[in-house]
Design a protein that fits this description.
By secondary structure, this protein is mostly helical. The protein has one domain: Up-down Bundle (3 helical TM bundles of succinate and fumarate reductases), CATH 1.20.1300.
Length: 138
């Protein structure tokens, strides 16, 4: 058995760089869904700690507000929201596929593009609303 493995030619690819492999858009949405899930998993505990501090007392709320203004925590909230948004949209797509809606290759590509387009539109709208609320707009 061992001798036959040594003589058998290994036909598996050596290059495992995912950027050099052409993946369909549905695969990129699936990978993005997993990455956004990891980001949500890592960032939600920080958000819950902040909620606990802000609800503990008035001083805690003021301290957290000053900290978030000074440290530029807006970007952390932006990353959390964008991760949640993408994870939600891609999750809806996956749930529909679980009940056998949109499983064909052509429909899968269309729904993947729809998730990306809807994500870009909603993320940009959220960015504009936040920009206007922070005083950057008219």
């Amino acid at each position: 058995m061992i001798a036959s493995r040594k003589t058998m030619k290994n036909a598996r690819p050596i290059n495992i760089n995912p950027l050099s492999i052409h993946l369909p858009v549905s695969a990129w949405v699936s990978i993005g869904h997993r990455i956004s899930g990891v980001l949500v998993f890592l960032l939600v505990p920080l958000l819950l700690i902040g909620l606990d501090i802000s609800l503990s007392s008035r001083e805690g709320f003021n301290h957290l507000r000053e900290f978030s203004d000074e440290m530029g925590m807006t970007w952390l909230f932006w990353i959390l929201f964008v991760s949640l948004l993408f994870h939600f949209l891609a999750g809806i797509r996956h749930l529909l596929m679980d009940i056998h809606i949109g499983e064909s290759k052509s429909v899968s590509h269309i729904t993947a593009y729809a998730v990306i387009a809807l994500f870009i539109v909603l993320a940009f709208a959220f960015f504009l609303v936040n920009l206007m609320e922070m005083g950057g707009g008219a």
